[in-house]
Amino acid sequence: MFRRLILPALAALLAFQPASAREVFTRTWVENGVKWTETTVVEVEEAGSERLVGLHQPPARKGLANFGPFTVLDDTRAALVAETDSYSPADFQKMLRAYPGIAVLEMADCPGTVDDFANLRLGRMIRARGIATHVPDHGSVRSGAVELFLAGATRSAAPDAAFVVHSWIDENGREPDDFAASDPVNKAYVNYYREMGLTGDNAAAFYALTNSVPHEDVLMLGTADLAKFAALN
């Protein structure tokens, strides 16, 4: 699923740029009794197929090291500083191998993801490692990044933090309402929210709220709004 969003209400405020992605092609053949495998990686532009809001180049943050969209701030803190993609779960694992003491993920300006399925895997990894998520003053967590904030073993956000949600759309232009509520594609999100600690009722209600606006628009939530569904510290 993709939440591809530049939205009329935010167009004057949020700049959108297509994100690059990689396509990997593999072919295998046998020649003179020897099996050969060739892998080709192609960089492509995926305009209009991202689940992002306000993708832009954030100010560089000084840190100890960078791993994909993550910057290690110190031995116990990392920051999510860009959109996530298909490689972000592996980047996350590499970061934790190098800095196993990381306990907090800061989320100051997070636009979303170019791979929704990898993004949910990443959320489950954050939860499994018991890492807390935190949105600092004036922070903005948008689209697919909201799922990562909810993954925090504990969650905290400044009073003025903003959360942007909206309906997803798939590659065929279908949105959640095009599927039955019991369809696996819809249940996957409700199940994810429950795994992240939301009650069954709150998981269903939050998913319904995110789908209350079409993919071409956004719903802005404050910290108090999100706290109605997910416990914040």
Describe the protein in words.
- This protein has 233 residues and is an alpha/beta fold.
- It has 6 helices and 14 strands.
- It has a 6-stranded mixed beta sheet.
- Helix 2 runs parallel beside helix 3 (144-150) and helix 4 crosses helix 5 (200-210).
- It is globular, with a radius of gyration of 18 Å.
- 39% of the residues are buried.
- Mean pLDDT is 83; it is low at 2-25 and 39-50.
Please give the number of β-strands: 14
Query: What structural class do the secondary elements suggest?
Result: alpha/beta
Helicity level: 25-40%
Unreliable runs: 2-25, 39-50
What percentage of amino acids are in beta strands? 25-35%
Largest sheet features? 6 strands, mixed
Enumerate the strands of the largest sheet in spatial order, edge to edge or round the barrel. 4-5-6-7-10-12
Mean pLDDT rating: 83
Which word captures the global form?
globular
As an assembly, this protein is: single chain
H/E topology pattern: EEEEEEHEEEHEEHEEHHEH
Using only C-alpha atoms, the radius of gyration works out to: 18 Å
Spatial gap, N to C terminus: 30 Å
The number of helices is 6
